[in-house]
Specification:
The longest helix is centred in the N-terminal third of the chain and has 13 residues. The protein is built from six helices and nine strands, in the order ααββαβαβαββαβββ. Helix 1 packs antiparallel against helix 2. With 222 residues, the protein is an alpha/beta fold. The structure holds S-adenosyl-L-homocysteine (SAH). S-adenosyl-L-homocysteine binds next to strand 2, helix 4 and strand 4.
């Protein structure tokens, strides 16, 4: 199964290309060296179709089928860096919107336990193959509706959402541990903001991180 991919890459998917991507992330303000190291090593090209592999290290979102996209490297970096900047490193992390599995794979290399939910069933088989090829054994996949979170596994130290609801889903707030942190894009298409919501003893603390563009978080599973 692992032979299916050239993990090291060649030409436009080579280590040199990954190093250049990481240099651009640094130039754009990403500072966490541990994160940059993981991103330099993670073969992003196995997370898209072969025909698109040569563009996957550019700072763009690319189609992954079913009208969905793999997030730009900068977005994955920005959200992950936020989790690494918390006073205590999260151990149990929930991701909503597995998609290609790239963000999931990154999380799995930085946090002990990663849970990820995807509403499109066909994505699941593909991502499992990728995680196996990378020997990532700390990821649990769930085919379901992320609006509901994952009550059986809750509470989580952190929740990261990679598609945008119009308002913050209540279930996700409820599934945060005390001091837990939720990072998500919120808003109508075309005017979304990336938010960090912290569950503190004084109540919820919300910080706006950036203006962003994500695909919408959709209800139900298919
Ligand atoms: N992190 C992914 C982003 C993929 S795009 C990557 O970089 O590849 C967002 C993903 O969220 C899509 O796969 C979409 O199907 C999924 N999604 C949208 N609404 C969802 C929901 N309610 N529950 C779970 N996944 C959802």
């Amino acid at each position: 199964m692992t032979e299916r991919w050239n993990l090291q890459g060649i030409g436009m998917t080579s280590q040199r290309t990954r190093t250049r991507m990481v240099q651009r992330l640094r130039d754009q303000g990403i500072r966490n060296e541990e994160l940059l190291e993981k991103m330099a090593a993670l073969p992003r090209h196995i997370f898209v179709d072969d025909a698109l592999a040569h563009r996957v290290y550019d700072d763009i979102a690319l189609p992954i089928g079913f009208s969905q996209t793999i997030s730009q490297p900068m977005m994955a970096a920005m959200m992950t860096e936020r989790l690494l900047a918390l006073p205590e490193r999260p151990k149990k992390v929930l991701e909503i919107g597995t998609g290609s599995g790239y963000q999931t794979a990154l999380l799995a290399q930085l946090f002990d336990q990663v849970f990820t939910i995807e509403r499109i069933g066909s994505f699941q088989l593909r991502v499992r193959e990728r995680f196996d090829a990378l020997k990532l054994g700390n990821i649990q996949l769930h085919h379901g509706d992320g609006f509901l979170g994952w009550p059986e596994q809750a509470p989580f130290d952190a929740i990261l959402v990679t598609a945008a609801p119009v308002t913050v889903p209540r279930a996700l707030i409820e599934q945060l541990k005390p001091d837990g942190c939720l990072i998500l894009p919120v808003g109508e298409e075309g005017k979304q903001q990336l938010l960090q919501v912290k569950n503190t003893v004084q109540g919820l603390q919300t910080e706006v991180l950036a203006d962003v563009r994500f695909v919408p978080l959709l209800e139900g599973k298919v």
